[in-house]
Fold these 2 entries.
Entry 1:
Amino acid sequence: MNPIALSMILSSLALGTILTVSSNHWFLAWMGLEINTLAIIPLMAQNHHPRAVEASTKYFLTQAAASALLLFSALNNAWFTGEWSIMNLTNSISCTTMTIAICMKLGLAPFHFWLPEVLQGLNLTTGLILSTWQKLAPMAILYQISPSMNTSLLLLIGLTSTLIGGWGGLNQTQLRKILAFSSIAHLGWMASILPIMPQLMILNLIIYLIMTSTLFLTLKTISSTKISTLATSWPKTPTTTALTLLTLLSLGGLPPLSGFMPKWLILQELTNQNTPILATMLALSALLSLFFYLRLSYSITLTSSPNTSNSPLTWRHNSKQPTTLLSLMLISSFFLLPISPLMMS
Amino acid sequence: MTLVHFSFCSAFTLGLTGLALHRAHLLSALLCLEGVMLSMYVGLSSWPTQISLFSFSLVPMLMLTFSACEAGTGLALMVATTRTHGTDNLHNLNLLQC
């Protein structure tokens, strides 16, 4: 892509998110979301193959409908209460439609069908942007309107998302679809803790961003998009491949790794709030996600050198990609658990 | 609920229903999206006159600008879809399904 156009697009992406995060007026927040959507579409459609164009069309239609619904809820709220500030979303109908609009923007459960298909059509860099940076702006709005939202609706959406994220990923062999379902499941955890303790939602979002970018950067380094190519990734970068096991277990939320911290705190908070059934179902749905993470880690790590591999070996190139960000993200997705007392204080 | 409020709410609902149900072609989906945005334009431009807040009058223009950008992107995507898939029929966009 032309560097001038690329810098323009990337700065518009940054501008859109920053505008949404820092605005107090619904219209400015909507403008930021629109800038975000319009800026990522050229990045998605930059390779002119049919899958990329299809993915960008689907992304455009869902995001445009969702942001129209968002502005409509804000306008309705203004007609009823005369108030455009984000904090003062008091009308209950507007609140419900706003929740639906933001869930559609994020890809939460009843509105999640676009996310795996769109992510499957993109290359790994754009997929990384879509599943990390593009989540920030809707999450910021969700965080700001969380005091006035319908608790049972959010809990229902969160539980459905974790279950669907777990069930959906079981039958996939494409890594980007698996990552999309894992994103749905993590967003479900965030949505279910949001009405109770919004700070934990932010913590979960940060940890999720770190772990997802680690996995995307690893996949980009070993340039694999299917489970079958994972099995021959050990000759390319042996250390990264071995550490990917820990990344996947961290995404699944196993104890000594940092992915355990948000799940632990969320389950503790839900038990304190006397919702043991919800906490149990969330914990059980994490097992579904853990199953496909374990399948990935089996094919990426446990089939490495001394074992026989069923896949044909690929040619070994020296990777020329920069790995500074990858190493930072790897370290922070393993070792953040010991600083959890600091975060709680 | 005043008459203006009811009319733009029903226009929005009709547009969104059309986008959800009647989208055999990408062009009709884009037209429904445009209808949705125009109903919002009516709502945004009649809200300041309702409560006599005329400093808000620029906002409908900004919204119209953004909706024009959105329509342009949608039409560009329609051209791209027609070039790669041969048609703008949305049932043909099935390369990525699970």
Entry 2:
Amino acid sequence: MDKPRIGVFICHCGTNIAGKVNIEEVKKYASTLGDVVFATDYKFMCSDPGQELVGKAIREHKLNRVVVAACSPLMHESTFRKVCMLAGLNQYLFQMANIREQCSWVTEDPELATVKAKAIISGAVAKSRYLEPLNIKEVTINPSVLVIGGGIAGIQAALECAEAGNKVILVEKTPSIGGHMAQFDKTFPTLDCSACILTPKMTSVGQHNNIELMTYSEVKEVSGYVGNFKVKILQKAKYVDHSKCTGCGICMEKCPYKAPNEFEEGLAQRKAIYTPFPQAVPNKPVIDKETCVYFKTGKCRACEKFCEPKAVNFNDTDREIEVNVGAIIVATGYDLFDTRSVSQLGYKKYDNVYTGLEFERINNAAGPTAGKIQLKDGRTPKSIAILHCIGSRDKNYHEYCSRVCCMYALKYAHLIKEKTESDVYNCYIDMRCFGKGYEEFYHRLTEEGVDFIRGKAVCVLDYNDAKTLYPDMVEALGITDSEEDRKKLFVRTEDTLLKKTMWLPVDMVILCNAMKSRSDAKDISRLLNISIGKDGFFLEKHPKLAPVSTATDGVFLAGACQGPKDIPDTVAQASAAAAAAISLVQRNKVVIESATAYVNEELCSGCKLCNDICPFTAISFDESKNRSVVNDALCKGCGTCASTCPSSAIKANHFTDRQIFAEIEGLLNL
Amino acid sequence: MSKPKLAIYWAASCGGCDVSILDIHEHILDVDKAFDLALWPVAADFKYKDVEAMQDGEILLTLFNGAIRNSENEHIAKLLRKKSKVLVAFGSCAHLGGVIGMANLSKRDEILDTVYNKSVSTHNPERIIPQTLSRVKEGELTLPKFYNYLRSLDQVTDVDYYIPGCPPNPEQVLAVVQHIIAGKPLPPKGSVLGAGDKSQCDECKRKKNVKKIREFRRIATAIPDPEICLLEQGFICMGPATRSGCGVACVNAGVPCRGCYGPPPNVLDQGAKMLSAIASVIDSDNPDEINQIISQVEDPVGTFYRFSLPTSLLRRSNI
Amino acid sequence: MNYYTPFLEVTKTILDAGGEDLKKCYQCGTCTAVCPWGSVREFSPRYIFKLAQHGLEGYEGDELWLCSTCKTCVDRCPRGVGIIDVFTSMRSIIAQTGLIPPTLRSVLGSINSNGNPWAGKREERNIWAKELGLKNFSGETTEYLYFSCCAPSYDPRTKKIAVATARVLKEAGVDFGIFGKEESCCGESIKKTGDNTTYEKLLNSNISLFNSKGVKKIIAQSPHCLYTFRNEYPAHSGNYEQVHYTQVLAELIKGGKLKPKKEFRKKVTYHDPCYLGRHSGIYEEPRDILKSVPGLEFAEMIRIKEQSFCCGGGGARMWMETPKEERFGVMRIKEALSVGANVIATACPYCIQMLEDGRTALGVEDRIEVMDISEILSATMF
């Protein structure tokens, strides 16, 4: 390598840096550093004229190292790498010195900030001397996209990708796509029928030539890297050959065994051979091995007897299928908070205390009550309390706001008012109606006569408990011991606007329970190497500027797996994730990071200390050579293995010991 | 023509290195045949002034064992450097500072206080501590100056080669000596002789798996499985961060490697490297649990820097 | 016409006095709605907090002294507000001005002159133990210090529970001793009055006594003392292993070292003391003891364990007047009667007094007894 000729470019970043750091002094200092042949400053180095200035200086001063002192490498490292490349310099001979986030923004005293800026630049210059040019690596991209999860987010993302001409593999854990949205009755605030707007999309997925739908399947293993993922999918045994099945339904009719119906939230039953709901896609049944009596006793086979096309196959087995894709969209959705953990609310203890989703089913024309809002004993309720923020906005459970409850609570209130004469109480902390048409919907509901009580409901008692604990209250509220009154539930809250403790004697209580991350979110995060935030949901790469990307290139997020979301936001995000995936896979080739680690076989002793520490699973072990190997396409250059390797056989390109020591010495001005 | 001259010197060390030279057994006769002894204080009666009288470079080979703890060590190191063509730092103390290098954790006065006042076996009611200069009626008595801290040989003078080990493996010593006797070309200056280029694990026959450590154990209180990598079993074995060459002697005997052969070629700081490796494979995400696991490591400096403290990035505690 | 504007300097005084958590409150009303006072009168901690957040007049009124520190609200608060700490800090500001309720003033006077809140003579401390032949504690010869709480020495009803506990412990061969007049009140309720000076005096006097005598392990009769030894003493270099007597006895029964002998043919329910349950997380040991008693029929009330209903004696309420119709003890006795119990058992001297009071106020002495766990055990032993 030639003798270093270093150029230092100091950015003012408007007043972001120049307002604190004495640029002139720093520039003078930089030009005194060894091997620095050119030092200059500019108002905005990242602007077009700024970039031109750098490129011109590289050519004119024959620079072979470039140091830009400006903001974080996250912001503009790629900008200046490109400038270097265009000027004919290998992009890895560029070094960024962060004098904004790490200096001017966080240092109060201008003099100290100037001293610190000098030290940071001195470190960068010292490191740059030892920078080595690295080869630019390109890999080809597989144009297929994997979508995990067949709820509305997965459906939307799959359709967008398929329409753009990409092959899509859509993996769904349950026997049908549709997700939570298929369970809803109406959608807020427009009150469209959920099934009516969802089923056409589900059908399109089922029929689309570019979509390979794999229901009753789970992703088991993901390896590879951006553009070239290898995915192992477990196709659970359905015991029904869907290529033969006509979906006539006779098997379900004849099956004598029943289990709680998951789709109906356990409020109804289904058969052991079943489709989750009538509009299921695919509309062909599976056998639930746990319930089916044949698997227990070896007898029955009723379904098989009646199946004309002979589609039932009791010898079916789980199968593992391997597919190759270029991008992955995660749309695994959410779980609901288990309201039993707030025992004071009487869920599963008293009749007529329901969760929001249970109420959706009760209210749904296709649901267990055929859409009639009724109590367990068949009566129509005369009063209903809807309790907000159950498990949301609560440090004891989930600190975040679930974002959808205020609105669906209003929707329930409306539907109740529409179908019954019932009084409706909403116990809320704050009404959050922020979306398009939401505030108007809230207004409409106040006019419909819904009673709003600003206070969090803390307990629900049945008649007996209330009578024992608060006999005076029961009497004062005029509750008699008539059969009807004895089925009342008593909700207690403070109306914080009145400073009065309130008791609401009602027939039904609906708990707006929190949306929470999937119970298996951790497994998925491990499979895909994506992070989980404090709230348990998947973490996007940047909350504002990269909301559908993840820390793993080529893996994108859609819908409620990233955080609580309503349907409009979910669909918008799913389209965004699809666009991001399409824009990636249609590029054909992608440049991957060259600042990766490699194992020097001469020095590796095969101790295996590095084998399990790579967060990107890029390290494997070559038994024949007794040496560890880094797959540089998977490697992100984090350096964990290089610092782990006890014999320094692993070197992290662009962050070698020599470069790092030089930087430290430079920082300390040694 | 007279035979080339050989010097063997014992500075601050235990004496084991001198014994290891004798451990080449009858081959010592070959050495005697090939060389004239110029200095070997433990074996023959030479005077420093004999060496001082020699021409510069008159000695072909000096095997210098022991670290530099006092002014006498330093004086002889520099003297032998001048008089020798090839100066070899022989054994861990000369090479890296050695076991006695852990004294760099203590201040000079603390060391003297321990040795001359506090140790249980000392009877010194007048608290007499050796002085560099004592005036008695017969005249002045002098002693070498005891330095504030200990250094390796190459921290006081230029060294040509290193033979590692505490003590060096006799077979390796023999091989090096025979190489020189045969007049074969020597490797580049600064090379480590009589050792390999990889870590101990390269020669270790124990079965190695992916490492996940949940508990540290000590050989004093637990019995390791004889087939499996000791580190995997929670015994801190310095093998992964130690240069090969000894034939994995300790590990084969069922004891974790202590690291006397020093760091492998590219490693700057043996202890830091091993710490960093172990820290990476502790199998827990829970800070409290991690602290609990780490707290099981008895004597961290003695474990990770047993032989290399004076030549590590740490070097010594503040004086 | 009044004009209002926030007065944030007042707010800051509260925050500085240890009420930092005041800032976290988002006014949902959970505290008000779960507060036991809500069953008998209007009382909104939330409202007091809002006034305090604005620094407006009114937070310092009489209602400030209602809180019995039962911790129901703290456990349910969605923002994790240390509501008791905020109340205590507001009380401490008032205490500095001397405007504390008059009955508390005499309690503090007694603490200052006698080292106990019951206006009893210091010399008479541990008079309850006179005939039991208990040894004096010494770190060299004794394993446990038994800390009886002040109440048994000066209140005839609670005297019985200390006697019962001491006898059972002795019978089981537990090696324990007591202090005499040198010992003072643990200080728990005194802290809740807001008088930090007096409180710290108590703390330091006990800690220096304990440390000088070599105390390592303490068996506490009262959950209030237990709480203080556990949560307050360590920060003032008072580090002891502390256990509640029910823990010791449950362990002895489990290990077969103590065996209830005689039958106790009664239907017993158990009232969880706030400071034993919510504050210290001890729910099972008292129940285990009761269930080990032969012949005893055990019945749970509706509000148990984490949801137990306060007796009304905590937070220095012990020494404040409560109108008969507002007494929690009365409600608790009613609840016990509703499950058909003829004994309500508990494990706290304050609860004993408040429940006895409720029983008398209701005039149901013939229908239900109030007994400490130790008294039931003692009845089956001797």
